[in-house]
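Budget justification aside, the reviewers requested a transparent look at the raw inputs and outputs of the sequence design task funded under Objective 1. We therefore reproduce one unedited record. The lines immediately below are the structure tokens for a 349-residue chain.
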């Protein structure tokens, strides 16, 4: 089979690999959809010679990328419990594997495993930008019949990441939440938070993304390149600030603004990967009793809950996607994605 590989320096290759065969406890999926995620760009842009992996164990040889996989169970290895996988079953993948036996792994948080080097499918182990993907059966999450494979791909990382952050924040209908960044994760957060009943203030420097945020349920939009976003948020909240804020942008400036836009006793969540931020602890946090939390993706339980919430509320996750590609178009797809002027892309396989 052929799979998409990032050699580095913004290059892309479609290489040939053996078709996978499931070992004990494993399944092979016939891929149907594989989403493009902003964190892919770190791998795509990395210099040649720098190993792939976000502080993870080094991959052995070229790795097929794509960590938003969704498909159908095509083959089942020995020892797989029928309750985990059945032939023809529609599934998403929780794209991590740890030791499987520690407390974090057993509660669905394999990415937090402290006992072994974590595998991240599409990063230091083969991912979904290929016709087939072999993964442990314990990483599978059922895909509801009401959801498309595209929606399942989104929930498998970007939309699921937004869900995990909003759950960390305990969003409710009593809250105003300022969401900094309206890329795929930010737009997902806008969709979900609005469905949870919150008043959403969406921020981005792109007028096109702000227009989409309005369509996705934002009550107010702010372009930080035109106005002071902290002052604008305070003006919209009777001078008090927002109960909650969420940064999906990774921008150091936006992260500070997300904290300063909070009301007293407010909570800010960082979900954007990488980067640094400098906080003046006393005025920004201590003297306002502010809380800052972080959220890294979601558990298997959270992934399934997110999917069910989307079904129950009729949320149009498919509308997140602005481009649909084939694997043969991968070079063009990532060249466009690298400009960060488009929305979310997905490979249909």
């Amino acid at each position: 089979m052929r799979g998409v590989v990032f050699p580095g320096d913004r290059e892309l290759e479609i290489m040939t690999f053996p078709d996978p065969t499931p070992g004990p406890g494993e399944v092979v999926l016939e891929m149907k959809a594989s989403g493009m995620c902003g964190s892919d760009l770190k791998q795509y842009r990395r210099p040649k010679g720098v190993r792939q992996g976000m502080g993870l164990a080094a991959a052995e040889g070229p790795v097929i990328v794509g960590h938003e996989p969704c498909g159908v169970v095509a083959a089942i290895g020995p020892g797989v419990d029928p309750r985990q996988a059945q032939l023809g079953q529609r599934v998403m993948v929780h794209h991590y594997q740890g030791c499987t036996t520690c407390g974090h792994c057993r509660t669905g948080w394999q990415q937090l495993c402290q006992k072994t080097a974590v595998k991240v499918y599409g990063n230091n182990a083969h991912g979904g930008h290929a016709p087939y993907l072999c993964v442990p059966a314990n990483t599978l999450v059922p895909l509801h019949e009401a959801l498309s494979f595209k929606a399942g791909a989104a929930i498998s990382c970007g939309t699921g990441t937004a869900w995990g952050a909003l759950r960390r924040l305990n969003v409710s209908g009593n809250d105003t939440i300022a969401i900094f960044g309206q890329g795929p994760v930010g737009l997902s957060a806008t969709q979900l938070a609005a469905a949870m009943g919150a008043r959403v203030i969406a921020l981005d420097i792109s007028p096109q993304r702000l227009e989409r945020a309005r369509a996705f349920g934002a009550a107010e939009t702010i372009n930080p390149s035109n106005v002071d976003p902290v002052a604008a948020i305070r003006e919209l909240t009777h001078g008090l600030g927002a109960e909650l804020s969420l940064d999906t942008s990774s921008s150091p400036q936006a992260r500070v603004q997300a904290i300063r836009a909070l009301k007293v006793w407010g909570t800010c969540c960082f979900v954007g990967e990488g980067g640094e931020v400098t906080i003046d602890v006393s005025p920004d946090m201590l003297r306002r009793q502010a809380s800052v939390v972080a959220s890294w993706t979601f558990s298997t339980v959270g992934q399934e809950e997110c999917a069910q919430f989307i079904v129950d509320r009729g949320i149009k996750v498919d509308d997140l996607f602005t481009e649909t590609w084939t694997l043969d178009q991968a070079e063009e797809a990532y060249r466009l994605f690298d400009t960060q002027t488009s929305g979310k892309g997905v490979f249909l396989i």
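The two ends are 12 Å apart (CA to CA). Residues 157 and 256 are 25 Å apart (CA to CA). Computational costs for records of this kind are itemized in the attached budget.
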